[in-house]
From TrEMBL:
UniProt gene name: purK
Entry protein name: N5-carboxyaminoimidazole ribonucleotide synthase
A biological process from GO: 'de novo' IMP biosynthetic process
Cited function: Catalyzes the ATP-dependent conversion of 5-aminoimidazole ribonucleotide (AIR) and HCO(3)- to N5-carboxyaminoimidazole ribonucleotide (N5-CAIR).
Family: Belongs to the PurK/PurT family.
SUPFAM superfamilies: Glutathione synthetase ATP-binding domain-like, PreATP-grasp domain, Rudiment single hybrid motif
Species assigned in the record: Streptosporangium carneum
GO molecular function per UniProt: 5-(carboxyamino)imidazole ribonucleotide synthase activity; ATP binding; metal ion binding; phosphoribosylaminoimidazole carboxylase activity
Amino acid sequence: MAGPIGPVVGVIGAGQLARMTQQAAIALGVELRVLANSPDESAARVIADVRLGDYRDLATLRDFAKGCDAITFDHEHVPTEHIRALAGDGFAVHPGADALVHAQDKAVMRERLTAIGAPCPPWRRIATVADVEEFAGENGWPVVLKAVRGGYDGRGVWVCRSAQEAAEVLATGVPLMAEAFVPFERELAVLVARSPHGQGVSYPVVETVQRDGICVEVLAPAPGLDAEEAAQAQRIALRIAHELGVTGLLAVEMFATASGLVVNELAMRPHNSGHWTIDGARTSQFEQHLRAVLDLPLGSPSMSAPVVVMANLLGGDDPDLFSRYEHVMAHDPGIKVHFYGKEVRPGRKIGHVTAFGDDLDEVRARARHAAVYLSEGVYT
Ligand SMILES: Nc1ncnc2c1ncn2[C@@H]1O[C@H](COP(=O)(O)OP(=O)(O)OP(=O)(O)O)[C@@H](O)[C@H]1O
Ligand SMILES: [Mg+2]
């Protein structure tokens, strides 16, 4: 194969985020290279330049990075010290280790957000049941215990109602922190992008709906959010991106409570709460991330319809998703279907659908119909 025609962006990890980034890379003439664990992974199936290897091995990462104009990530699990080593070699790694550690380690994130005055729930690093009891004495039960590193889709989050429940979680031996249980009204997310030269852009604030710890639905913009609170959420997210020196995308998950906004956690890559932007914004989050990591001017985050709803497809019992396209597409020609080319397993995120229009209830019902039918083959 001849050499690359455009800039080369190396993505460590080959899941659905890298796969969807490829769509944006095609339009921009950017060449993506992915580091995959296996040729069967979601992104490895659609990208020409696939390298196989272990992202925990520095020599593999160094070899992978050679010839890349920028390096970025599909997940948060690359050891922080390896990211630092790659930057030390002169590679342009976005986000850098000093920023990314705040998305890798929830205790480091809480320390930093507290220091810059971003709104957080009461929290503490804990090691023993006595620590949890002391924390509960000050903040009440339930106490939310969280794995400091490595959690996702709610795995690594335990709502404990007693010292006994906390003891069971502590017995697993994973490093933990405690947070006060936030009685939130709903969950919001703000997606911003920041480029190495410091330009920042914010997408509209969205509402995320979770079931069993997994995001199932995203409503854009967050229904009924008043303009002042929306602007405040965007200011908090842009400020975090600036203070932490984030380069690329930053998703800030927040709780909306009766007494204001509280930050839940951070992600520094394309995020499930931003999948709606592929069909529903002028610039998709995937294009925005590529622009940011290549230090290009950022694109418009404005919406292409008044209301956009994204619903995740979770695997059901019947693996043949494709056989259900006909009904969904005939039922609603306006629905956009995104399938990640992953093996269908019950409960696994395998794709999403997007609907857009003028009326929230109508758009939401359409997205839900398509998602439920594609996942389960029935609509009840
Ligand atoms: N302090 C809290 N109080 C109440 N609910 C909480 C608290 N922290 C987390 N939750 C609930 O648990 C969910 C998962 O928490 P969190 O986002 O920290 O975990 P995660 O597994 O890293 O998530 P993700 O899937 O976004 O990576 C939140 O979306 C929220 O519904
Ligand atoms: Mg989360």
